[in-house]
From TrEMBL:
Species name: Streptomyces olivaceoviridis (Streptomyces corchorusii)
Taxonomic superkingdom: Bacteria
CDD domains: NAT_SF
Coiled-coil boundaries: none
Enzyme Commission (EC) number: 2.3.1.-
Example of a GO MF term: acyltransferase activity
Protein name stated in the entry: GNAT family N-acetyltransferase
UniProt cross-references to InterPro entries, sorted A to Z: Acyl_CoA_acyltransferase, GNAT_dom
């Protein structure tokens, strides 16, 4: 596949933007690659784009080529502190759809105040790797369906990983589960990244909300990290999720970053 969009260059040389595959575009000026564009469809079906270019003018030309070739809506993600990138995407017709806060979360119970927290009556926390895979996958699907029917799964910060169609739990060993009697009612996923573990998801069945289950799951996850010698973890929270924001801020988590999800319809 080689669709070429030729435009005037940044100086005296023309820039040729070529679609080199279904998902990639290259900008070439005087035989030198000066920018790249990539499109990727996420597991929730949305199409995200990214552009890496040396100059703002080249960014604009790659964006024009991608917009001409791709269906809308299109999405992208930028650091809200990166004003140059934000301006570039706005020139391409993108607007803010939502904001996601990034938190550094302490693990020490002396800091979080979670040392005395216990699961609600009748609830047991199964450590990561001990949950039965079938019921875990069923709980994950139920929670996803509940979120999709309300706020929409796109508002849930989550690891975006390649996965087989229809598969949402890639590695059951990353999940700790809250069990009430014989039913799984909540889960927490922690990705053991080298630099800083990431709390990818905390979720509880809607009929078990406001019972302290999420706090118990977070207590378990942070306690496990603390005992392993990890001082802090990373988590993202959608700006509109007041309950999650309150939970993290109540344990001393520090908001250190903001990410904007942009959309072009």
């Amino acid at each position: 596949m080689n669709f070429v969009h030729s435009t005037p260059g940044t100086d005296s040389h023309p820039v040729a933007v070529t679609r080199v595959s279904e998902t990639q575009w290259h900008a070439v000026e005087d035989d030198l690659t000066v920018g790249r564009g990539v499109a990727a469809r996420r597991p929730d079906g949305r199409l995200f784009v990214s552009i890496d270019a040396w100059h703002g003018a080249v960014f604009d030309r790659i964006a024009d080529a991608m917009l001409a070739d791709l269906p809308t809506p299109l999405y992208t993600v930028v650091d809200e502190a990166d004003h140059d990138s934000m301006s570039a995407w706005e020139r391409a017709g993108f607007a803010t759809a939502r904001r996601e806060w990034g938190y550094v979360v302490p693990t020490d119970p002396q800091i979080t105040g979670l040392g005395s927290v216990r699961p609600p009556s009748g609830v047991t926390i199964l450590p990561a790797g001990e949950a039965e895979e079938g019921p875990l996958r069923a709980l994950d699907r139920l929670i996803r369906d509940e979120v999709e029917a309300t706020a929409g799964w796109q508002t849930m910060p989550a690891e975006v990983l390649p996965r087989p169609a229809g598969t949402t739990v890639l590695d059951p060993s990353k999940y700790a589960v809250a069990r009430h009697v014989d039913a799984y009612v909540g889960l927490v996923r922690v990705a053991p990244l080298t630099r800083q573990p990431r709390i990818g998801l905390i979720a509880v069945r809607s009929d078990r909300h406001r019972r302290g289950i999420a706090r118990a799951l977070l207590t378990h996850a942070l306690g496990s990290l603390h005992r392993s010698g990890t001082a802090s973890a990373w988590a993202e929270v959608d700006e509109s999720n007041a309950a999650a924001t309150a939970l993290f801020e109540s344990i001393g988590a520090r908001r250190t970053a903001g990410t904007l999800e942009l959309v072009r319809h």
